[in-house]
Amino acid sequence: MTNSKSNKPWRFLILLLLLVAGGIFINTWALAGDAHVDRQQLKDFPVQLQTWKRIGADEVLDQQTADVLRADDFLSRVYGRPDGRLASFYVGYFATQRTGATYHSPLNCLPGSGWTLNDPATIQITPADGTAPFEANRYIVQNGNDKQMLVYWYQGRGRIIASEYWGKFYTVLDSVRRRRSDGAIVRVMVPVGNSEQAALDAAVSFAAQVAPVLPGYVPN
Fold first, then answer.
1. What is the pLDDT of residues 85-138, one digit of tens each?
2. CA 168, CA 97: separation in Å to the nearest integer?
3. What domain range includes position 211?
4. What burial class does residue 56 get, using C-beta atoms within 10 Å of its C-beta: 0-12 exposed, 13-18 middle, 19+ buried?
5. What pTM did the predictor assign?
6. Is there a single domain that holds both residue 114 and residue 11?
């Protein structure tokens, strides 16, 4: 009969070695940081996308807003079409989310700025280059008399996701598997005017033009 007591020191030693090895792995992983990925700066994003063309200069955030957003790179720009339709376009890119800096959901930011969010839904965007459709969030938002169609999604590391919770899950997974936690929030806002459907169609049309270009600035 095997003496169980004689096995205890070995079990303890094996457990200790596993704990030490795990600690070394975690410390090495933490010190290594995120893997480097090449990307273009968002300020160089095309000023024209088919019939959509930049209107005016890009928005410059004040220091207080920049400190809250904590994005490593961002773009806030208005595009217009010949028919007079406008689209406000925002991308906030984070090179790493290990330090706690991460995208801010419009569900948290907009109400704090006086906006109400109504009629939530998910929609499908089909990129203009014919690649696979993806899901995005859609809301009708209002601040006083200003009524806008809001479309947004989370993007990074080859994923385009509507759900903030799944976005966080994949960020953790990719951080472990690929040493990458970079990502961005992408937001489009179009004034509703006289027709919610026309505003939605414009937002979807703009998002379809944006989608094939984004990977150069928000890497796969």
1. 999 999 999 887 766 667 777 887 787 778 899 999 999 999 999 999 999 999
2. 10
3. 42-216
4. exposed
5. 0.81
6. no
Contacts 24+ apart (CB under 8 A), 133-142: 134/160, 134/161, 134/162, 134/211, 135/160, 135/161, 135/162, 136/162, 136/207, 137/162, 138/200, 138/203, 139/106, 140/192, 140/196, 141/106, 141/110, 141/115, 141/116, 141/117, 141/189, 142/115, 142/116, 142/118
| Pair 133, 188 in one domain | yes
37 falls within a domain:
no
Query: Do residues 63 and 169 both lie within one domain?
Result: yes
* 33 three-state secondary structure: coil
For tokens 């938002």, the residue is 141
Co-location of 21 and 104 in the same domain: no
The span from the CA of 173 to the CA of 154, in Å, is 15
- In the structure encoding, which two tokens stand for residue 104, read together? 């801010």
Residues 6+ apart with CB under 8 A from 114: 143, 144
Q: Which one-letter amino acid corresponds to residue 4? A: S
CA distance 117 to 139: 6
Among candidates 25, 47, 32, 40, which has minimal Cα distance to 179? Answer: 32
Would 84 be classed as within a structural domain? yes
